[in-house]
Amino acid sequence: MDSATSDRAGSRTPLDRSADNGLKIVVVGGFGVGKTTMVRSVSDIRPLNTEEVMTRAGEQVDDISAIEGKTSTTVAFDFGRIALDQRTVLYLFGAPGQERFWFLWDRLFAGTLGAVVLVDTRRLADSWYAIDRLEHHGTPFIVARNDFGGQPHSAEQVREALDLSEDVPLIDCDARSRPSSKNVLITLVEHLYTLSTARENAQ
Description:
Layout: E1 4-6, E2 12-14, E3 21-29, H1 35-42, E4 51-53, E5 72-74, E6 78-83, E7 88-94, H2 105-109, E8 114-119, H3 128-137, E9 141-146, H4 155-162, E10 170-173, H5 178-202
Helix pairs in contact: 1-5
Keywords: GTP-binding, Hydrolase, Nucleotide-binding
InterPro entries: Gliding_Motility_GTPase (IPR052705), Gpn (IPR004130), P-loop_NTPase (IPR027417)
Family: Belongs to the GPN-loop GTPase family.
């Protein structure tokens, strides 16, 4: 049986068995920055997630000082899918944010077209490791500031704090919003196209 995808408005469009062009994007970032929320908001299908209820024991390991309302956490990865057409499918993987699960990241990065680094400007230091690993793997990425309603920071301040080069796109988003999350993915694809065109012109 063919799988199906939804436009989230009630209609369903079949995904052809011949869909043979799979593209992979990973959403990374610190603990509690909204990775699961973004995958959930933009996926055509009901996302697969590995969320577990947080316990008091976990409070001794995970810093929840800035996210007191968080009650569950990803313990492996999130997975969603967007059918771009009958032959091309975009697979989304959300990486767990806690330091104790960072060993999973290198495997998630394998075969990745590009990545979104989701950040909470109240806790920018939590995103340093994600950027470091992406640069280590040579994986192209963009940075998206998720809106948590904290003190505003200028783009220059965020770039300086994350040591971002000027060619890395930095945009604002609301991970709860499907249109906003789609815009993040579109920005990443446009960035990948720009990098590809620059490489071709340099040859």
